[in-house]
Specification:
This protein is mostly helical. Helices cover 65% and strands 0% of the residues. The mean pLDDT is 85.
Length: 187
């Protein structure tokens, strides 16, 4: 295997797929807002799986390059973390049921084991943090960056005030204002 940098066309495609995933993630956040209550189940699932598919495509494209470049399949599988992979087609499992019960303040489902017990505890901690979301600066920054980027691309800054909490909308507006339209490289 050679130690050369990623080929430029591959790098460009990976950047494109990651940008696509980020925009889909912003749409997931957008559809969680109260003004879109009528479509949140359908659209959050669509956009979350679209984002996952874009990142899967990026991973598999890189894996294809590594394979073509002579990397062993065992190493590719290790890097792809295939032992952690779970198909969406299998539907929600015990882990997701445990996490959901913790999030909603329900008793832990009876089939809890040590690993799923961690999911239940994670759900409980997240539910507690949700009571004071403004206390999580990283969450605020992430939401503001995604909404600010999307708003900058659509030039609809005023829409932020219609669906975001004031602090998030203000920060997203600042992010949007800080972003400049990309200019073509001088050549």
């Amino acid at each position: 295997m050679d130690e050369s940098p990623m080929p430029e066309p591959l790098r460009h495609m990976i950047h494109q797929l990651v940008a696509e995933a980020v925009l889909k993630c912003e749409e997931v956040l957008r559809y969680t807002q109260p003004d879109l209550v009528h479509d949140w189940e359908r659209m959050t699932l669509y956009r979350a799986t679209d984002a996952a598919d874009s990142l899967d495509k990026a991973s598999l494209l890189i894996a294809a390059y590594c394979q073509r470049d002579g990397m062993s399949q065992d190493r590719i599988n290790w890097y792809l973390q295939t032992d952690q992979q779970r198909s969406r087609a299998a539907g929600p499992g015990s882990s997701e049921q445990q996490l959901l019960a913790g999030l909603l303040g329900e008793p832990a489902p009876s089939e809890a084991d040590d690993e799923n017990g961690m999911d239940y505890s994670w759900g409980q901690r997240t539910a507690e943090q949700a009571r004071t979301p403004e206390s999580d600066p990283m969450l605020l920054l992430t939401q503001a960056c995604l909404h600010g980027l999307s708003t900058r691309l659509s030039d609809d800054v005023d829409a932020l005030d219609t669906y975001l909490p004031t602090q998030t909308a203000t920060t997203a507006r600042n992010v949007a204002a800080a972003l400049h339209a990309p200019q073509p490289a001088a050549g």
